[in-house]
Write a structure and sequence with these properties.
Shape: globular
Structural class: mainly alpha
Number of helices: 10
Number of strands: 0
Helix content: 55-70%
């Protein structure tokens, strides 16, 4: 019923989507709804209606079994996390991504994808104060998420850059993040650390 309501609503405001649900394919329905939701970010003037619609999509993602959740989360991050320069809805984008992050199981590795999207979006739109950037918390989360070293490095690198560019001048915190990042390298991939080490010297 919620799927049909969303389909009907999105079609009604002009998005390219059928009002009919896919038979026996709830994941396919969700994919199409997330794709169609990109339209309302550009064309819907009513902010509260936009927020309500996207929160409805989040609720559909959160009821998926853990084995099916990764792809819709990544698709959602792409739809909501991309903000153009001067986008007046960046605050709402951060808020809705935060809602998804909070709703996911604390051990879900998909939280890492949402957090990385949040950091990049908040950095770009100068809203870093809305995102948790505490290094100890990020380290605690990364252990819970059980993510690859490469993904952790991506998060720490993005966090470092965001902190460094922050208007509140968080260079000391950024340096701590960079030291943590350099500590993730081993003898096997030490050569990859060279570029990050150079960034550390520059900062």
């Amino acid at each position: 019923e919620q799927v049909l309501e969303l389909r009907s609503y999105l079609k009604g405001v002009g998005a390219d989507i059928s009002a009919e649900a896919l038979e026996g394919n709830s994941l396919g329905d969700l994919r199409q709804i997330i794709e169609a939701s990109k339209y309302i970010w550009e064309n819907l003037n009513n902010e509260s209606e936009l927020e309500m619609t996207v929160n409805s999509i989040i609720s559909l993602i959160l009821v998926l079994p853990p084995t099916q959740i990764q792809e819709p989360v990544l698709q959602f991050c792409e739809a909501v996390g991309k903000s153009s320069t001067g986008d007046k809805r960046s605050f709402l984008r951060v808020k809705l991504l935060t809602n998804l992050f909070a709703g996911l199981d604390e051990k879900s590795s998909s939280r890492a994808d949402v957090y990385l999207t949040l950091i990049k979006l908040a950095h770009q739109s100068e809203l870093l104060h809305l995102v948790v950037t505490d290094l100890n918390m990020v380290k605690k989360w990364s252990k819970q998420w059980d993510i690859s070293n490469t993904k952790l490095q991506n998060i720490l690198r993005s966090l470092h850059d965001a902190l460094l560019d922050s208007k509140t001048s968080q260079s000391e915190t950024a340096t701590k993040v960079m030291i943590e990042l350099l500590g993730t390298y081993t003898e096997d991939n030490a050569s990859q650390a060279r570029e990050d080490a150079h960034r550390c010297i520059v900062t």
